[in-house]
Design a protein that fits this description.
alpha+beta; six-stranded mixed β-sheet; 38% strand
Length: 142
């Protein structure tokens, strides 16, 4: 089945995000974007963020100690409402302070308006993040 415009936007945005091209990624997000995590990626993560800039700033800070992310999209679900997209995707990278490989899986729900993402809910496994960043008591890799 041919890819619709919103799926193209999602795929392009995620590719920029993975390469840490935050300004290019932000071009696909509405200024009034609402984003949230039902399971926060880290204990200090807010449950929600308002605004594309706030989300990009948060992601840039949170991924600073990681190599660029290699995202892969496993499945995009077609819905009756063409302005909503659900996607299953994954990532792989390395956490530089520990040298640990990091790979996670995500389920994202996205809403679109006028060619921009206005809503981004992401389900992610926070335990996978914690294990990649964990160090033992001496500060070395666990």
């Amino acid at each position: 089945m041919p890819m619709n415009d919103n799926e193209r936007i999602f795929r392009t945005m995620l590719a920029h995000l993975g390469r840490k091209e935050f300004a290019d990624c932000e071009r696909f997000l509405a200024p009034d974007l609402y984003s949230d995590w039902p399971y926060r990626p880290a204990p200090d993560t807010p449950t929600e963020l308002h605004g594309a800039r706030a989300l990009m700033d948060y992601i840039a800070a949170g991924t600073a100690d990681f190599e660029p992310f290699n995202y892969h999209i496993d499945r995009v679900y077609e819905l009756a409402d063409p302005d909503i997209l659900i996607a299953e995707y994954g990532s792989s990278t390395r956490y530089l302070p520990t040298g640990r490989d990091y790979a996670n899986r995500y389920l994202g729900i996205f809403r679109f308006r006028d060619g921009l993402i206005t809503y981004w809910r992401e389900y992610v496994n926070p335990e996978t993040i914690r294990l990649a960043m964990e160090q033992n008591a001496e500060g070395a890799q666990a």
